[in-house]
Backbone:
């Protein structure tokens, strides 16, 4: 192998992490090849639905950002607590989001393809429909990849191959996933006319809503989500695979029951399901990041590196994926030798991503509490029922009624202990 | 498909697949599956591609319709009998091709 044949970088995977890295590197004149197994970037990818836009803005700048194929700017945040007999929704609109929207709903097949176009315009070479099978190692250093029997060499290989990351596994940087580290997500895309989406959710042109559901997973850790797109809805569930395995209901059935629940169906009525998707998502936050994210000649970014924050009310993987792609590109510019890229990348990550992830470190533990997914949504609904139901009989006094509701559902001791655990896990 | 309770076949029917009729990217060993106690793949696969007619019949797997998520591999290797002896992605540009994502 002579040096002329060696690329500056090979990127494995054309999701948002890989594409962000490709864009920055190519723009600076680096010779970079991105290999994506889908026939186009995006057509193997699915997400819930919304991208927080800060890192994309710093990647592309405001002009390009204005061209991005977003669905709707999210201004309405909703949380619905569901029990068998009722549902209670909190609905919050932040009018300041209208000026500088902080997040947009997106559909990945469309969005990734668009970003791939921008990376290509910047000079990146994007090869699709090809899977990278293996890393090539020489004297303890990763020097290249094998794809469909062909070898390709580069100063640095960037593993951006998503949550299952076989590249990081092959490099010995992480073990295969276990069922406590990930959630499994399923989603239906449901088409509805643009005006119907707007009127059902009380939205003006271009505005969108994001809604989370608790109490819809048959007691399994997890929840439901709904994002409004321009003329469709993204409706889905994320559940813990281990707890899923310990019960009898099929994931597909859970999804259908969720869709047909009286708290959900009226939002979808008259629509048409046009796609059914599934994907894994990292659930451990900071504690799920592998101890080491590089070797000489290789760095790991995006989902492959475990960069996802899920705190129930917000889930952030796409913005962090982009951020990590930018961090590795910066490291490549700063490094004198390929051996320096990894440590410099870690410096950038420690500065840009890790502090935020540490703040939310305690959330996964809090969200593992089984009562969050059945009993608490039921308590909320029982309390609402007490406050609004009038049947002519003499009602209980308020404190007694509330005490009974808590006692019947979880008991006071669990309530206090959960409250305490909640406070401590969030303060850690 | 109109919004209603849908069978998994109907849901998968909405999707675009470039089917690889010949090669399965996931392989199970039926002898190992026969000894699997709780068979978590049956409930966990979102596409319901692992099936068993009744308690005494063997577990069958059909790779067509796979959404390439990886859930079966994890539950099989963590809570099952490790009967999935090969798990990979379909080759070339075969398999699921999301139009929305
Ligand atoms: C149900 C669900 C809901 C979510 N909701 C949100 C949300 O609302 N907001 C948010 O910010 N995040 C959300 N996330 C997380 C977010 O989707 C991910 O964090 C993000 O997509 C990660 O981007 P990535 O580029 O690292 O990986 P991916 O998008 O998975 O990209 C990896 C790419 O690598 C390719 N690839 C893999 N292996 C190979 C190979 N061997 N050779 C060639 N190519 C390969 C794949 O085809 C793919 O294109 C959600 C995730 C799920 C599952
Ligand atoms: S990868 Fe996902 S969709 Fe495919 S068989 Fe496994 S669980 Fe089912
Ligand atoms: S979990 Fe694994 S071993 Fe058990 S039946 Fe399913 S595929 Fe076979």
Residues:
């Amino acid at each position: 192998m002579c040096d002329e044949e060696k690329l500056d970088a090979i990127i494995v995977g054309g999701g948002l992490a890989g594409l962000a890295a490709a864009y920055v590197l190519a723009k600076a004149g680096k010779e970079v090849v991105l290999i994506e197994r889908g026939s186009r970037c995006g057509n193997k990818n699915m997400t819930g639905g919304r991208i927080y836009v800060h890192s994309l803005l710093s990647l592309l700048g405001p002009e390009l950002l204005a061209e991005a194929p977003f669905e709707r700017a999210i201004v309405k945040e909703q949380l619905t607590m569901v029990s068998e007999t009722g549902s209670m929704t909190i609905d919050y609109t932040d009018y300041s989001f209208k000026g500088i929207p902080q997040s947009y709903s997106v559909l990945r097949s469309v969005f990734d393809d668009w970003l791939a176009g921008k990376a290509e315009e910047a000079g990146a070479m994007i090869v699709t429909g090809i899977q990278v099978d293996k890393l090539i190692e020489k004297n303890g250093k990763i020097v290249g990849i094998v794809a469909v029997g062909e070898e390709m060499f580069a100063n640095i290989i960037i593993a951006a191959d998503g949550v299952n990351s076989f590249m990081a596994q092959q490099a010995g940087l992480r073990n295969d996933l276990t069922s406590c580290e990930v959630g499994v997500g399923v989603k239906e895309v449901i088409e509805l006319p643009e005006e119907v989406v707007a009127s059902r959710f009380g939205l003006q042109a271009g505005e969108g809503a994001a809604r989370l559901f608790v109490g819809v997973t048959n007691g399994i850790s997890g929840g439901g989500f709904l994002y409004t797109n321009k003329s469709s809805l993204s409706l889905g569930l994320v559940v813990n695979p281990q707890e899923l395995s310990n019960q009898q209901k099929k994931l597909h059935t859970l999804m259908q029951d969720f869709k047909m629940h009286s708290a959900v169906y009226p939002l979808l009525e008259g629509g048409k399901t046009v796609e059914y998707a599934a994907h894994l998502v990292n659930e451990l936050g900071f504690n799920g990041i592998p101890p080491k994210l590089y070797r000489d000649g290789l760095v790991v970014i995006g989902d492959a590196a475990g960069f996802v924050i899920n705190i129930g009310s917000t889930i952030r993987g796409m913005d962090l994926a982009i951020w990590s792609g930018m961090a590795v590109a910066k490291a490549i510019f700063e490094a004198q030798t390929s051996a320096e890229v990894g440590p410099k990348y870690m410096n950038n990550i420690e500065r840009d991503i890790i502090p935020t992830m540490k703040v939310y470190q305690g959330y996964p533990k809090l969200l593992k509490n089984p009562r969050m997914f059945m009993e608490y949504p039921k308590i909320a609904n029982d309390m609402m029922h007490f406050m609004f139901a009038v049947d002519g009989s003499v009602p209980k006094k308020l404190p007694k009624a509330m005490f009974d509701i808590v006692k019947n559902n979880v008991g006071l001791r669990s309530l206090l202990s959960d409250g305490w655990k909640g406070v401590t896990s969030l303060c850690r | 498909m109109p919004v209603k309770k849908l069978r998994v076949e109907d849901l998968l029917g909405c999707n675009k697949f470039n089917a690889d009729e010949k090669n399965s990217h996931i392989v199970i060993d039926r002898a190992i599956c026969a000894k699997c106690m709780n068979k978590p793949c049956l409930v966990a696969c979102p596409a319901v591609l692992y099936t068993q007619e009744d308690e005494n019949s063997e577990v069958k797997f059909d790779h067509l319709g796979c959404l390439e998520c990886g859930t079966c591999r994890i539950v099989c290797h963590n809570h099952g009998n490790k009967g999935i002896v090969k798990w990979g992605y379909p080759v070339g540009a075969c398999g699921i091709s999301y139009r929305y994502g």
